[in-house]
Amino acid sequence: MNEITRARIWFLGLVLLIVLVAHLLFFMFFMHHGSADVAQSVETEQLSREAGHEVAAQVASAAPAQEVASSQLPEKRSFWSRLFSWGKSAEKKPITPVPAAPPKPVVYRYKKPTGNPNFAKPFDYSNTIHGDLAADVVPGSSGARSGILVDLTTRKVLWEKNSRQPVPVASMVKMMTLYTTFEVLEKVPGISLETPVKISPTVLKVPRTGIIWLDPRETFPLGDLLKAVTIKSANDAATMVAEFIGNGDVNRFILAMNGNARELGMTDSKFVSPNGLKDPKEGNSLSSARDMVLLAEQLLEYPPVMKWTTTKVDYVREGDKKTVLTATNHLVNPRWPGVDGMKTGYTSDAGYCLTFTVLRDGRRMVGCVTGFKEGRDRDRFCRKLIDWGYARAAQL
User: Fold this and answer.
1) Can you list the domains of the chain with their CATH numbers?
2) Which of 132, 143, 187, 360 has the fewest CB atoms within 10 Å of its CB?
């Protein structure tokens, strides 16, 4: 073997050795980093499954943080730098936490929170008087099928009688019609109290009692219809509001009423109409005195509703067709200071009912009674109950 042949063999062996070493380095490099990537991928997938809806809820708020954090991720390394640093953990730059943006204040169009720190908290029954009140203390409680009086300032229930019993509540159902409508107004900026509502033939199917004689040839601002619902307790106006807000479907609106009831914890309630009239198939809308107080507290946050509940006389239409709206709540009277709402009700099944709200010297009372045989007995008892309630609250 001459010298040239030996050189060729040596050179070929060197090339093979270099190729072998290169393959070995590649193999060790990708085995190291590949196993780490797989482990991290499995861990991420597991966390995603456990987080569930929490991860989905944070996607929107996390998006800005991702943009900022992307500049802080470990820089990508070149092929040769990765090749000659195998076996060593890549140094990562620390990720600086991105401070969460402060929540934007909620802007309401119609709602005005009461500011009561105890708003919507559970009621306190520790000092409650149950059943009928003594006749020499507050006469007339025996005439109530059910009732309750709550000091909303302290959440103390001062008196209750069958307050969790579901009973027909007649036109007090319209309180939920009002609440459901205003909740939609807060969420849908395209409609307002000034939005014109074209009266549909649906109102002609409403029994012709307790109505303002709406005509399909007419158009009213939504606010006028709600005013008629609140002050005069107009059944045809309540039906028209439900159809309009329900996008042409009264039943869709009723479903929303029951959905709102569940969200508010009104577990004794089932609504079958927007006006409180008996449905031929479903029967009466049912609720309890306690549930009506929960609903009344929510309506206290809507100044338009409270304005209407303290209005004794108003009008819809103009000129010769002007229609008078006369309040049905006779407790709204200077003789009974502080009474500022809320809704009466009567049918033969429900009897005379009333949910009332009172504010005296910064203390807010809300009560409800059902089932009286006469309206004057209901009103007389409620007046006595209010005075008694403020005296008792001062002692607790």
Assistant:
1) 129-395 (3.40.710.10)
2) 187
